[in-house]
Amino acid sequence: MICNNCKNEIPNDSKFCEVCGTPVNSPQPQPAPSPQYQQVPPPAAPVYRPQPGPQQGPQYQQGYNQGYQQGPQYQQGQQYQQQRPQYQPGYNQAMNAGNPPPLTVGQYILMWLIMCIPLVNIIMLFVWAFSSTENANKKNYAKAILLMMLIMIGVYIVIAIIAFAIGGSIFSGLTDSFGSYGSF
Questions:
Q1: 9-18 confidence digits (pLDDT tens)
Q2: Is 173 helix (H, G, I), strand (E, B) or coil?
């Protein structure tokens, strides 16, 4: 038997060619046919069709189709050079129109360095949080840090009260036990 791929002789009972590894019983792979493309004509230009208004009554309805214009016709090879219609900005574009620009990496690094200086960091947090001319991102960052500091101070006060209560009860228990043995 002869291999279809490399044309070498192979044993009759083998399933694969010993030289190239091609399966014996499989037909030789055919190249994939290239897709046939057809030229699609450009889309017709949008045509403005006014809607009847309240001041335009039935006389406008009768002649409604008279002002209809068919889009331009193109011949093969002719360039499509028509101005695209202008659309109103999308939802996200309209919502982001008034937002301030985001902080740059350099501004974040400067904020972090200022936060490392004792007392200056607290003063700057209040300035950033309550300034009317500050970037909204920086204002929100400062407000969040001040809120977290306020929460942590409250937690520290609660922990201190609990520690003093436990320490006071331990200290009073020690003085009572020493008092029974006499004084030094």
A1: 888 888 888 8
A2: helix
